[in-house]
Structure formats: structure tokens, C-alpha cells
Protein: Rhodanese-like domain-containing protein
Amino acid sequence: MQNEKINFLKTYLSLYIDHTTVLEDLNQPDSKYVLLDVRNAPATIKKDQIKGAIAMPAKDLSAHLTELDKSKTYVVYDWTAGTTLGKEALLTLLSAGFEACELSCALEGWKGMRLPVETI
Amino acid sequence: MQNEKINFLKTYLSLYIDHTTVLEDLNQPDSKYVLLDVRNAPATIKKDQIKGAIAMPAKDLSAHLTELDKSKTYVVYDWTAGTTLGKEALLTLLSAGFEACELSCALEGWKGMRLPVETI
Amino acid sequence: MQNEKINFLKTYLSLYIDHTTVLEDLNQPDSKYVLLDVRNAPATIKKDQIKGAIAMPAKDLSAHLTELDKSKTYVVYDWTAGTTLGKEALLTLLSAGFEACELSCALEGWKGMRLPVETI
Structure:
């Protein structure tokens, strides 16, 4: 049972990336990560997003895969960690052969740490 | 590793149903889904519930399985997405041969979207 | 697919322990569980912790494994259920051969139930 737990945790954790790693990379000239804001809400509801993120609602993602870059790693996020939208987007990206992970703690955690956002 | 991630995400997401799908179904004359409110709190603490839900505390679920209908799909929910009570109820239902899933974002998400609730 | 869901849920739930079980055990003279507060924040940010917990930031855990007791079961917790820090600590502990699980609903849930905390 311990091995099953360990394998489960390894796979689970491999789906996530923490905000520190993302933020440090985004400050580099040739950053590897691209943030995708997969919230389905309109801009009037979203109001702001993580600085430098691309708005890519999960419901539209499949139709926009050809615009994405296979040399990048996409970091998806939704409002909070409690939703399943980020994992839906992640499944779409991984199934299409992209490198992708979910931002640990989502937008809520990013804002809670007072990390950079921008008005949209 | 990508295949493991994809399989993990597929199984994870198969456990959930989103509020839109549930709400549309509940508005049909012959709805397929039945909401089970599995919170263990007494009614005085719960105060309200999703409109049309059946109060079925997770701690009592095993004793009430014979009252459930195998032609329905049960949608369980707890207070928030962060608890494990919904998944405990889900395991009980699936192990007993019922179709069941967990409401994505739980009661908190339902109320956040201002979807219909009722006083209890 | 039902078997995959059931196995997934069993493994997922085996990672967690609920606050009632922990609290009852901690009230025994020879308790089995030891709470590890794995938050990485300094004490000035944390302010309080679960009563009797040991402060063991996840970032320092690997360096302190030799101080832990293989006859105990370690219960890790972070601020909320939405973070991945608890699961990172859990993976470290299980991989090193310790018995360990994560506190369901984390510190947030413990405080929400008004269970005992202590100033640090």
C-alpha cells in the first residue's frame, strides 16, 4: 500500500508547479513557462489576471491548440485550487502533446502572496 | 510519465460533475441526477441546501443504500471542495454498484454561482 | 472504469486522516499520532498552530528525518486543503519509510471547527 501511495503522490505532484518557480522563470529573458488563464468568465468578471498571462478559457482551448508552442511549458490556472477546470485544461494540453502543469493554489494563492497581477 | 499523468487526470475528472450539467438535468421532467447532501452537520448548522437535494449524511449512507435507485446517478456534495467527505461517500456508492460522482466545487461553488438553494 | 475510480478513491482517501480521529488520539496518554506543521512561513506569519504540533517546515523536512520516530504516525498539515505542500511532505515521509498522512481540511478546517490551537 505504501508504494501505491507513493506512486499516487508522485503523479499528483507532477501535475503542479509552485508560484516561486514560475515567478523566477518569468523574470528570465528566455522564459520557459507561459501562463494560461483558463477561467471561463468574461473579462468584466475576471477584472485582473496574473501579469503576463494569456487569456485562454478552458471551453475554447481545444480550438486554439495550433496557436501554442511545443517548446514552452504551459502553466494553467483557474480562480481557486478547489475547481476542476485547471485539470480539464491540463488534460487537453497533455493529450495534445504539450508540456503543461497547473499552478499550485491557483489565482487565489498567487494573489494571497501579493504576486504581480494586471488589470484586464 | 505523460501517459501516467493523462490516466491520472482522466480518472480524477471522471469522479466529478460540474454544476451546469447537473442544473440542466434537474430542470428536465425525467432527470437522471439526484443530489445527495452528505454533510454530517445537523440542519441547524446547515441552514440550507441545494434545491431538491436529499439530506444523506455520509456517516449514515451505508445504512440507507437500500433506499437508493440504481437507475439514477447520485451527485454528492459537502461544504467545500477541500474536504474528503464527498469522496468517502462516493467510494461507498461506487463500491455498492451505484453510479455516482461528486459536485465540482461543492456547495460553496454552487452558492458562489448563486444557483438555487432552499432553506431546511 | 468503476474499478479504476474505486482504486483511485481508496488510495486518495488513504492519504488523509480526519480531525476527530487525530484529536481523540492526542487525548490518550500514549498517543500514536504526531502533528507536523509543515508550513514554510516564519512564526511571525504563522502566529499559532495546532496544539501540540511540531513546527517542521516542508523545506527543512529532509534534513530532519533522523529526528523522527518510526513507531509514530506523522500527520502533516499546511494552511489550507488547496495547497500541495502537505502532499510534498507526505511523499518525503512515506519515501523514507515513515507512517504518515495528511490532515483532512488542513489548519483552516481545524480552526473552522474551533479545535485547540496554541500561540507560537
About this structure: The beta strands of chain A are 16-17, 33-37, 48-50, 54-55, 73-77, 99-103, 117-119. Chain A touches chain C at residues 1-2, 4-6, 8-10, 12-13, 16, 18, 80-82, 104-106, 108-109 (CB under 8 Å). The longest strand of chain A covers residues 33-37.
